[in-house]
Structure prediction request, 186 residues.
Amino acid sequence: MVRKLSLPPISSSEAVHKSMLSNRGRDTGPEKALRAALRRHELSGYRLNWKGAPGRPDIVFPESWLAIFVNGCFWHRCSRCDLPLPKTNRAFWRGKFELNVERDARKRKDLKTAGWHVITLWECEIKKDVDRCVRMIERRLNTYRPTGRSPRRPSSARIGTRTRARHRPPRTSSAGRARTSGRTRG
Ligand SMILES: [Zn+2]
Prediction:
């Protein structure tokens, strides 16, 4: 399904090397900063890399069907930053980045197909003003109030091979409980 590339070549650039080290999966700097800000704003009820959502987004609020991706500008090719390709092995990097961008688009599409709302936050936005990012999340959470069952809950017929039934957020008997504190203080 996903083409795999071999290990990246040794980078001649210290900056690229550092960026590679700092962008491995979970617990990247921007993601930590965002989670700290979510705690500061007392927004709870989210899960990290939750298996219940297609593509395991970085952060999901299952009760509100809200999925959040935290994208590093280098790896995910932020159009605002438009960071240059590494000077060496350009073909390798170009191919790798194309796969990353394709994968990101596919994940967003799969989530939307399954009825999720999707927010993509970029490293540069988080670095610039993390509180603004959290306010955006908060607004979305207030818009997508948990109803216990979503009107856009996908029927099994619409779910493709990549998004199976287990990808549904759980039925909840305590809709909204986890988020009450965030909303009342909003
Ligand atoms: Zn950026």
